[in-house]
Design goal:
alpha/beta; about 50% helix; binds ligand C2E; binds magnesium ion; Bifunctional diguanylate cyclase/phosphodiesterase
Length: about 280
C-alpha cells in the first residue's frame, strides 16, 4: 500500500510540475506575440508630496491586455519575461514609452522641473550588455528633461555583482538619471548597500504600510526607515497608502512623498494627463 501511495504521490507531483511548465510555455508563446500585437500598455501612478499634496511625479507600471484572458497581473508575467529573456525587449519598450510620455508632457508644460518619472528595471535587463547605452539613447531621442527619469531597482540587481551595479548606476547618474531602491525593507542587506550605491530615494514597501494604523512594530520600522533616510539625505516614498489614517501617520513621521490607492491607482496615459492639468 505504501508503495502504491508513494508512486501515486510522485505521479501527482510530476503532473503538477508538467502543468506548470506547460502553462509557462503557453504564456511565453503569448508574450512573444504581445509586443508586436501591441497588447502592452503603460499606466502611470501619481507620486504625491505628503506636505503639499502636489503631484511630484509618476511610476510607470506595465499592463498586459491578453486577447482572451483579459488583463494579467505583472506579478504573473514579469517572472516569465525574465526567465525567457523577453524582458530585454519589453523592458526597452517600457523605457521608450515612458520617455515619450515625458517628452509630450514636458512640451505641454505639464511636467515641471523636479518631477520624476520612475521606471521599474528587472535584474536581467539591468545587467544586459546594451542597457546603459539604450537608456542614454532614449533620453536623447525623446529629449527628456534632465533629471526627469528615475530608475527603480531592487536588491536583486545588486546582490551578485555590486561593483558592476555601481558602475552602471554611476554612468547613468552622470546623465542625470536618478535611482530609487524599490520594496525597501523586504530584502536582507539593504542598509549596507545604502552607503555604496548612488541611490537617491528609498521606497518603503507596501507590506509595512498596510497595518500602519494598528501594528506598533510596523510603525517603529517605518519611522526608523524615514529617520534613517532623512539623515542619509535620501528621499523617502511610501508605497501602498490606502487610507487617510496611514497618510496622517506618515505625515507625522515627515515622510516626503507617497503613492497609493488613497489618491489614485495607476491610470492610462490620458487620465494621468488630465490629472496633471488639475
Ligand atoms: P512595484 O514596483 O513595487 O509597484 C507597486 C505595485 O503596488 C504596483 O502593482 C501598484 O499597482 C501597486 N499599488 C500601488 N498603490 C497601491 C495600494 O494603495 N494598495 C495596493 N495593494 N497596491 C498598490 P503592479 O502594477 O501590479 O506591479 C507589480 C510589480 O510588477 C511591481 O511592483 C514591479 O515590481 C513589477 N512591474 C510592474 N511594471 C514593471 C515594468 O515595467 N518592468 C518591470 N521590470 N517590473 C514591473
Ligand atoms: Mg516600483
Ligand atoms: Mg515596490
Ligand atoms: Mg517590486
Amino acid at each position: 500500500h505504501v508503495k502504491e501511495k508513494g508512486r501515486d504521490a510522485i505521479e501527482f507531483f510530476n503532473e503538477d510540475m508538467a502543468d506548470k511548465v506547460s502553462a509557462q510555455l503557453v504564456m511565453e508563446g503569448d508574450l512573444h506575440r504581445a509586443l508586436e500585437q501591441q497588447q502592452f500598455v503603460l499606466h502611470y501612478q501619481p507620486k504625491l508630496d505628503i506636505e503639499t499634496g502636489e503631484v511630484v511625479g509618476a511610476e510607470a507600471l506595465l499592463r498586459w491586455q491578453h486577447p482572451e484572458k483579459g488583463q494579467i497581473s505583472p506579478m504573473d508575467f514579469i517572472p516569465v519575461l525574465e526567465t525567457s529573456g523577453l524582458i530585454l525587449d519589453v523592458g526597452q519598450w517600457v523605457i521608450e514609452q515612458a520617455c515619450q510620455s515625458l517628452a509630450i508632457w514636458s512640451s505641454k508644460g505639464l511636467w515641471r522641473p523636479g518631477m520624476t518619472m520612475s521606471v521599474n528595471i528587472s535584474p536581467r535587463q539591468f545587467r544586459g550588455a546594451s542597457f546603459v547605452q539604450d537608456v542614454i539613447d532614449a533620453l536623447q531621442r525623446y529629449d527628456v528633461p534632465p533629471g526627469a527619469l528615475d530608475i527603480e531597482v531592487t536588491e536583486g540587481i545588486i546582490i551578485q555583482r555590486v561593483d558592476e551595479a555601481i558602475e552602471t548606476m554611476s554612468t547613468l547618474a552622470a546623465h542625470q538619471v536618478s535611482f530609487s531602491l524599490d520594496d525597501f525593507g523586504t530584502g536582507y542587506s539593504s542598509i549596507s548597500y545604502l552607503k555604496r550605491l548612488p541611490v537617491s530615494t528609498l521606497k518603503i514597501d507596501k507590506s509595512f504600510i498596510r497595518d500602519l494604523s494598528h501594528d506598533r512594530s510596523d510603525r517603529v520600522l517605518v519611522e526608523t526607515i524615514i529617520t534613517m533616510a532623512r539623515l542619509l539625505d535620501l528621499n523617502v516614498v511610501a508605497e501602498g497608502v490606502e487610507t487617510a489614517e496611514q497618510l496622517e501617520i506618515l505625515h507625522t513621521y515627515h515622510c516626503h512623498s507617497y503613492q497609493g490607492f488613497y489618491f489614485s491607482p495607476a491610470v492610462p496615459e490620458i487620465q494621468f494627463e488630465a490629472l496633471l492639468k488639475r
